[in-house]
Write a structure and sequence with these properties.
Blueprint (H helix, E strand, L loop, with lengths): L1 E7 L3 H10 L8 E8 L2 E8 L13 E7 L14 E5 L2 E9 L13 H14 L4 H12 L2 E6 L4 E5 L4 E4 L2 E4 L9 E5 L10
Antiparallel strand pairs: 1-4, 1-10, 2-3, 2-4, 5-6, 6-7, 7-8, 8-11, 9-10
Helix pairs in contact: 2-3
Length: about 200
């Protein structure tokens, strides 16, 4: 299990880190964050608990994740979020809550790392991001978040609970009655709208 947070707001990354830090005690195997900054994705991650200090860029869209390992080793390579690259450029960051039991069995890879690779392959084959993200969510049935470099925040509400508070979506919190499927998160928009 994990705790993850994706948001669009002023100082989004600092808020996402605060939210995740509150729940880290039971999920401290690894950590990571991603921020959309000037059309690029900046990612930091590591093993253990989220450090108290460090570089935190100002961003209007960000995600943060803390991991309790259920599939795959506890390594920096399996820490979330995962960079999704197309032609050598990071176009998105992806994180996941839960265990995808049907994930391909790739030595030392987590199920979430496999999801990021599947999304990447779909994008490399020319599928547009919204369709590729939707297909990944439908294939896995899992709760997944992704931050696109354009600042768009994507959520697939799957098996695990979603907490929704305006411009913030978190997983592993109290359950929210958010229909299974793809949703986007808009700043201060209230309820995320179906895409």
């Amino acid at each position: 299990m994990c705790w993850m947070d994706i948001r669009r707001s002023d100082d989004a990354l600092a808020g996402a880190i605060r939210s995740v830090r509150e729940h880290e005690g039971s999920n401290g195997h690894s950590w990571g964050w991603a921020a959309a900054v000037d059309g690029e994705i900046v990612i930091e991650k590591g093993v253990g608990e989220l450090p108290e200090t460090g570089y935190v860029p100002a961003a209007e869209a960000a995600l943060c994740h803390t991991r309790f390992a259920t599939k795959g080793e506890i390594t920096p390579g399996n820490a979330h979020p995962f960079a999704v690259e197309v032609e050598g450029e990071t176009v998105a960051a992806l994180a996941h809550n839960g265990t995808w039991y049907e994930a391909p069995d790739i030595r030392d890879w987590s199920d979430s790392r496999c999801m990021a690779r599947i999304l990447q392959m779909s994008l490399e084959n020319g599928t547009h991001f919204p369709a590729a993200f939707r297909a990944l969510g439908e294939m896995t049935g899992e709760t997944i978040i992704a931050l696109h470099r354009d600042g768009t925040c994507w959520v697939h509400s799957g098996r695990f609970p979603i907490t929704r508070e305006g411009d913030v979506v978190s997983s592993s919190g109290r359950a929210e009655d958010l229909a299974t499927g793809v949703h986007t998160v808009e700043p201060r928009a209230g309820v995320p709208a179906d895409d």
